Each structure stands twice: as C-alpha cells, then as structure tokens.
Amino acid sequence: xxxxESAETKLKEKLExxxxxxxxxxxxDFICVKDDNMMFVEVKSYKGQMLKxxxxxxxxxxxxxxxxxxxxxxxxxxxxxxxxxxxxEPPKNPKRRRLTDEERWNRLSPETQKDIRDKxxxxxxxxx
Length: 128
Fold this sequence. Notes:
CATH topology of the largest domain: Trna Endonuclease, Chain: A, domain 1
Helix content: 25-40%
Structural class: alpha+beta
Strand order of the largest sheet: 1-2-3-4
Largest sheet: 4 strands, mixed
Strand content: 15-25%
Distance between the termini: 44 Å
Radius of gyration: 26 Å
Oligomer: single chain
Number of helices: 4
Number of strands: 4
Order of helices and strands: HEEHEEHH
Shape: elongated
C-alpha cells in the first residue's frame, strides 16, 4: 500500500476527529454493474476461507444500504452477505516448531527404533 499523501493524511485525521472510521483496506475484489444492477463480490479460494475483519465490516455496511454483497468461492459459488452476517475471526495459524531429534525418535515405534539401531550398528545412515 502506498503511503498517504499529505492532503489525504490531513483529511483522514480530520474525519477521524469527527468520529468517522476511515478505511483503506477491506474493499471488495469486484464491483459489478449490469444494466441497473450492481453487486459487490469478495472472492475467496475455498468455502471455509473467511472474510478479513475489514472486508466483513465494509461488506455488511454496504449490505445495510441495500446493496447486493456476496462472497464467492469456486466450490460453492455466490454466498449472500447480509447486514446481520456474523463476523467469524479467522483461525490463527500458529507457527509450527521443528521437532527435536529426541522428539522424532520418541514418535517411532519400538520395532522401528530397533531396526534403526541395527542398521546404524552396520554403518548404515538412517534418517528419521
């Protein structure tokens, strides 16, 4: 995202002081117009992929104005977003830590551990 220009920064600060919530993120991927119809569409890769907080905020507020708002995924198609669509916090993806050699070893069955010890006794390098 490009940094705000000074005039934009001044306006943003002025509006926020007056109580407005000024957004730079969250706008739908598509604003579609056909004849006298308009719809706003947020595209996600799969059904379970959630809207981000800003996306949900913008789409539900647009829906409050009576505008047609949708989330679209290839596996489901269009899902209408309404003013009362609840926001669901996307799950956090915790960073997975690498297992230590001892933890990997302890996950092996006793039979596998014995096979590895036998092979290593013969000079065969084993990766587990």
